[in-house]
Amino acid sequence: MSLVDKNGYGEVAFHVSEAHASDYIALLKPRVMSLVVFTAFVGMVTAPAAINPFIACFAILAIAVGAGASGSLNMWYDADIDAVMSRTVNRPVPAGRVLPSQALAFGLVLSGFSIGVLGLVANWVAAGLLAFTIFFYAVIYTMWLKRWTPQNIVIGGAAGAFPPVVGWAAVTGDVSLYPIIQFLIIFLWTPPHFWALALFKSGDYERAGVPMMPNVAGEASTKRQIFAYALVVAVTGVLPTVFGFAGNAYGLLAAGLGIGFVWYSWKVLQMPESDRAMKPAKALFGFSLLYLFAIFTALLADSVLRDLGLVW
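RESULT FIELD:
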């Protein structure tokens, strides 16, 4: 069956029968979901309490589904933007494989399911935080900040930084300084990570009318801000050791990773504006992913070793 949907970026023919399970999986943004699940899991493991493995599994499932719900709602609303950007044009909605109304319904159902499950199997503090995270990403970031201000990714980065806090709350029923530090690591990491991407994808953002920093403030200003954030990220990464939540081995690793982040950012700062290949920006983008994964892996290892009495 064929339908025509007028959704703000022209008339697009949709063939409902073309939607496959893989398209609905794509709506969940599985790569983003994997990072959410991992950081939430670290938040759970580093919490100073035990949790029933059965409850832990369902809590992680609920957080994963909540992340997927956010992705589906984002793709529903951003279909017009996705349709003109090279890296998103083949997503299920702009490509015509899934109707916008289907993506919206899918996201809303998953949102309710994830919040309800987390509240029932863990606690309603964690469920409330998950609900706020979904709302923040889908409404505050996607519907407002993304199209309104070049600070979109700065403020909107909070949505991606909440998972370790949600994971911690699922175990303890509250929030304390350590998950807030984990939140800050992701929150402050987000702008240089995405601005590095925006430097070599500025044409996409310009065509879509998204006010990313390079398109509004210019390349030179963006590079300076990336470097400034990198300095703050490097300091924030060692805070778990400074406050006694992690051992010296973690602190040394985090310091080394932070120096690497600053070095890659320095290379971006020194990159001439005539460099259209933008290899330094691409290198920083790649390293930033490694940085976040390594930092949270180290926090996880530190917690496990601490429980075994092996932390230095």
